[in-house]
Each structure stands twice: as structure tokens, then as C-alpha cells.
Request: fold
Amino acid sequence: KAGVTQTPRYLIKTRGQQVTLSCSPISGHRSVSWYQQTPGQGLQFLFEYFSETQRNKGNFPGRFSGRQFSNSRSEMNVSTLELGDSALYLCASSVDSYGYTFGSGTRLTVV
Amino acid sequence: KQEVTQIPAALSVPEGENLVLNCSFTDSAIYNLQWFRQDPGKGLTSLLLIQSSQREQTSGRLNASLDKSSGRSTLYIAASQPGDSATYLCAVLNAGGTSYGKLTFGQGTILTVHP
Reply:
């Protein structure tokens, strides 16, 4: 079966711009979580959606937002980009907390 | 607040050795624990998932154990191969509604297996 698909794979943006990342979960998975990975902070939880509802949120500023559609696909948006937002953004899907499958990630570079 | 620690931070071994990676967590009220590997610049690949009621899981040359009461898990890799070279990450999912979707990760162990 198809895995978790993240698009695009790479992005280069300028400070102050906004960006939208997309995640298509495994068919039948209703939970989608997002993580930011940086060399200094490791993997940090951004938020989780289940059936179009945000159930949990990490400690990130309001510039980071997300949503989930009725087909379980999810998007995350970062507004007013800062240099420190450069990272690998990973999404993961799950049936409901029973093991997570990750996508290949989107590498965001802010210049 | 859950904290996950992995030891060692890096490990270099010759091919064929058996090795153990360690993971400890501070809050024993977990729902499950998952081991992942990550190749440079790539996403995470799930290796083993252990539910809180289980003591161990095995897949091929990999065996993971869980001692929830002491807050420890180990990943045992038998007969290591150069293709095992990667970063290994331990992640726990806490029990309870406030933990939906939130895996807490360790910093990882960078494994290098040389021929």
C-alpha cells in the first residue's frame, strides 16, 4: 500500500514569506501529526489532527498552523518565515495512536 | 513532562558485532514505544513497536525490550552489517488524552558499522 506522501520535497523561501506543506496519509489513517526536525532541537511535535479536528498542539508560535481535510489529507502553514524555521518537516499518520508511519519530509530552507 | 534519553550518542563497530542501543524515559505512563531508523536527509522508518503491556518485540535481526517500571527500552541488533549504519531513534507515546499524536523522541544514536 502507498505510504505517507509529503510534498514538496524541497522548498527555498525568503524571510517574511509564508509556506504551505502538504501531507497525504496512508489510506484509512485518520490521525496526522507534524514534527519539525533541526540539528539543535531534534524532533519536536507541532500538532496532531484527527477527523479534521486538532486534538493536540506543541509549543510553537501561532505562525505555525495546520488543518485536515475530510479525506484526511493535511496541510501545515508557516507565515512570516524566519531563518530559524529552516528545518526538515515530517508528518506521520496512524490509525489512532497504534504506531506511526512517517513520510520522507519536506526540507525547508529560509534565506 | 516526558523526557527521553538515548545512550550512547554515537557508536562505531566492525561488521558482524552484536550491539545494544539504550533508551530511557522519565514518565512510565506510556501507551507504547517505537524504534525508528533515519538515514541522512530522509524520513523515519519504523523498526519495532512495543505496546505498554508487552515486554519485547522481534523482527529479523532486531529485538526490542521494554521495562516500563524502570523506564527503559533496549534495541538489540544481531550480526550488524554496513547497511545498518543510520541514526536510531526511540520515541514514546504517553497515555492519556493530552498526548494525542505526540511522540516524544530521544536525540538518537548514530550507528556506524564498518566493513
Summary: The mean pLDDT of chain B is 95. Chain B touches chain A through 26 residues (CB under 8 Å). Chain B has no helices and eleven strands.
